[in-house]
Amino acid sequence: MDFDQLFVTRNWVGKPVRRNEDVRFVKGEGRYVDDLAMDCAQVAILRSIFAHARVKRIDVSRAAAMKGVLAVVTGPEVAGQTKPIAPRAITKPATQFVMASEKVRYVGEPIAAVVAEDRYLAEDALDLIDVDYEPLPAVVRIEDALRADAPLLFDEAASNVLLDDTLEHGDIKRAYQEADLVIKEKFHVHRYSSTPLENWAMIARHDKASDSFVVWANDQQPGRSVVNVCNTLQIPTNRFRLIVPDSGGGFGIKLAIWPYMVILCLLAKKVNKPVKWIQTRREHLLGGTHAPDCQVELELPMKKDGTILGLSMKDYENDGSFVHTAGIYGLIKFATLVGCYNIKATRAQMLSIATNKGPTVQNRGVGKPTMIFVLERAMDIAAKQLGLDPAEIRFRNFVQPEQMPYTTPSGEIYESGNYPECLRKALALSHYEELKKQQAEMRKQGRYLGIGISAGIEPGTSNLGYYYTSRGIPEYTGNAEGAIVGIDYDGNANVIVGSVDTGQGHATTIAQVVSDMLGISPERVSVDNQLDSLISPFLGHSGAYSNKFNDVDLGAVIRATEKIRNKMLTIAAHALQSDVADLKLNNGTIYSAKDNSKKVSFREIAALAYKKILYLPEGLEPGLKEIAYYKNPMAKLPNKENFNVQLTHSNSVHVVAVEVDVETGEIAFRKYVIVHDCGNQVNPAIVDGMTIGSTVHGIGGVLLEEFVYDEDGQLLTTTFMDYMKPVAAGLPQFELGHMYSPCPYTLLGTKSAGEGGAIGSLAAVANAVEDALSPFGVKVTSLPLSPEKVVRAIRETKVI
To answer: Taking a C-beta distance cutoff of 8 angstroms, is the pair 518, 565 a contact?
Structure first.
């Protein structure tokens, strides 16, 4: 991490440069899937009205005969032309196709699709499809799915538990033997999700001559989708092209939209015309993937002085009905299993449970918000039982800066950080001692102020081999990304990456890095964020997920830029009759440090590389375009004894003050402080935006958002009238503090920054609410903290 060697100027990296890609969006010039000017037939999807039923018969004759309808496809037809969905983490057999065939397993599961001349006709035609169901008992709750006589979602699994694995690391038996006490608690975290402004959207076109497909889709992980679509359709990858235009948000929810690409490809082939499907908001809430609800039993064997000796967890994940991602949420908890604490022994039992709820996928944070919630709640419970301040018990257990890099019992490597100083800074910024005095005064007035602390790890760059920790042989390992950097005829730089941008500001950040590496301004760097699998340097890992951009994406850009810079220096040295070591770059010119009059512009170098190729140094290839791939060097192969789930580890502390109205249950923020450490920051303004945005995401999960199902598996929250979202009026004024512990394993010393607020906020708010209600003896063990639950706990149950 020698910045003097990496950068030729220090004008842009580390500066809060304004996002240059925002202008066209605010002017309405973005090009999303629905903006693409193509003559498309429109698709509507018939979805199951039952949570669990056998499909006895599907009669599409009336729909197919309707004027304007071009084609209809059903689940049995799709199953006959495709392979089943491939699971990644579960160990039990479970057969599922991209469209329900013999059985439906959740309300909203696709069972047929119509292509018509317009969407209105397609939707009307769905009403003409006759489906004969044989309803089966629905299994909705975890405890119902675990009953010995529970109806099975997948008969071949012989159980609704699709993964049950226990991993022990360190001497957990000794931890219990030496403990003075054991903190035990059961927690429940509800099912919620993300709701990007743009729902899923895609167009598929089939070329009859080559029997190939082109799909335009707002996919978040195109590298994996290309593989999954081709495997499912049983076609070689040279017959499938994926193009990802602008995307209106993702947050993980667009990581597994590929099953619908398969459906659209079959429809496009059937009608020999491009077909378009734009997901409605109700479809998105109903079956557009959620974060699973879960139950966690947590135990902390401890000494009387508050020292934690070990951690034991039993994690029940209600993974719903999507075998592709089932089991992931339990495994990824190992990235934050011990949080910021020096815990030497762990035991974790992970259960992935199939139910008749909707499918789950990697929502922002992916299991880590729950892990930090239960751990940080347990820390407060322990502090209360031992008579310690919540801050003090954390200070007594933190991993210390001199222990870095720190390896957790399971093998996760925390590369850098100063967790005690982060908490000290957060306490000072929040005026913690003053808040406690204010709390005491307000209670005399019958007002209830609560103070909550949460310290958490924000991991990034997933080592994709972790999916297979329980299954064995991995399909993917590690993490990497690709980039192409070129200099055009005018001497300006252009960049193509294998990843995609779903609103994070990648183009601005890339331009900052390339500018300082080439000694030019960001205005001279153009970045193409719209992936095309025919052109873009993508890998199976490619996509916008797990905070990997700051690591492997920028790593690939840096390596490609180094290549192009070295080639330009070679050409310039030849043209100027100088040594490469004597040359400098500045403002689009390469000049001799010994003789400033000897200089050549980037434009002139480009002319030599593209046009006057006979003047190039002997043996040097024409052109100025370089490709590079970069992988994080810290990934381990999946091994139950020693593995790492993620490869960089930021940390943060949230200190929250809330006032609870004990008559109405309303929770009002009085202070919200975040101090975080994500290493070096390429663009501090973007980092601040992500920190606040992810925290708002977490606040929504703590206070408002919840998918509610009835006992028959019917989802009751399918509009924004009942699935509540946070709005600006109810949010606090966030106060941010920064620390800088560079990561020694990334090229820029950067660490993750996009999910931290969604991870730490759940426990911080919950701890604050319990603290506010301590005069009433209320304990918080579940989410969300709705006004109704708060009032009931105060008056009756004493538990939320």
So the answer is: yes
